[in-house]
């Protein structure tokens, strides 16, 4: 059976697993953004927080994915369901790029722009929401872009703890030494990563103020 025939015959299972994969990544990224951006903002306001916050995120990033899933497995409530465990683990992996880019984006705002905003009578909160965050958003989106692509790849490991997703095909294919099964998981995951990278890249460019260089 050719790969095309295999995909045609098992398209429903592949689409179902792709949906599970998107759910894991989407939930993880939403949590990572809600946690990572405020932490990044906190670092810009209180620089002494940089070491504990970025240090903790760095440590989480360096732990091998299977090991992190294993560490979280005995945790009450988390270990009861594979998807919960996977979302927490993936959120931890996604935090570092988001925190770093939030800090880089806000600290990279021209001090003269900040002073001009304060000269107009803006409070610190208004400067943050009306000046710093809008100007730093392209950099923040770049961090979210990196985190999303990273999370899509790591999410394939979630199948090892029963969270579902495209990793199920990969693990089954490895166990059966079946390249078609492996590709049934790997190809859609790669396409998801490319699509996410492209869409977030478009968003990043649209949010970038005119005249700023594109990296």
Secondary-structure content class: mainly alpha
Straight-line distance between termini: 44 Å
Largest sheet: none
H/E series: HHHHHHHHH
Mean pLDDT over the full residue set: 89
Proportion of beta-strand residues: under 5%
Number of strands: 0
* Low-confidence segments: 211-215
How many H/I helical runs?
9
Helix content: over 70%
What would you call the shape? elongated
The Rg value, from CA coordinates, equals 20 Å
Describe the model.
- With 215 residues, the protein is mostly helical.
- The model is unreliable at 211-215 (pLDDT under 50).
- Helix 2 crosses helix 5 (82-107), helix 7 (124-154) runs antiparallel to helix 9 and helix 8 packs antiparallel against helix 9.
- The chain is built from 9 helices and no strands.
Fold topology:
Layout: H1 3-9, H2 11-45, H3 50-62, H4 65-72, H5 82-107, H6 111-119, H7 124-154, H8 167-176, H9 179-207
Helix pairs in contact: 2-5, 2-7, 2-9, 3-5, 5-7, 6-7, 7-9, 8-9
List keywords for this structure.
215 residues, mainly alpha, 78% helix, disordered C terminus
Give me a quick take on this structure.
The chain has 215 residues and is mainly alpha-helical. The chain contains 9 helices and no strands. The protein is elongated and about 70 Å long.
């Amino acid at each position: 059976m050719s790969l095309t025939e295999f995909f045609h015959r098992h398209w429903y299972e592949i689409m179902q697993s792709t949906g599970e994969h998107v759910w894991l990544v989407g939930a993880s990224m939403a949590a990572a953004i809600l946690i990572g951006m405020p932490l990044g903002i906190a670092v810009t306001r209180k620089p002494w927080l940089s070491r504990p916050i970025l240090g903790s995120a760095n440590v989480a990033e360096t732990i091998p994915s299977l090991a992190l899933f294993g560490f979280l497995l005995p945790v009450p409530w988390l270990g009861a369901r594979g998807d919960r465990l996977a979302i927490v683990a993936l959120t931890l992996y996604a935090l570092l790029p988001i925190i770093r880019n939030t800090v880089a984006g806000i600290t990279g705002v021209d001090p003269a722009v900040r002073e001009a905003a304060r000269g107009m009578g803006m409070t610190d909160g208004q400067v943050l929401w009306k000046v710093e965050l809008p100007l730093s958003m392209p950099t923040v989106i770049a961090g979210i872009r990196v985190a999303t692509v990273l999370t899509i790849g790591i999410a394939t490991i979630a199948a090892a703890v029963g969270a579902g997703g495209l990793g199920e095909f990969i693990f089954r294919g490895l166990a059966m030494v079946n390249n078609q099964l492996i590709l049934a998981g790997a190809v859609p995951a790669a396409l998801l990563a490319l699509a996410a990278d492209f869409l977030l890249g478009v968003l990043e460019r649209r949010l970038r103020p005119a005249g700023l260089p594109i990296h």
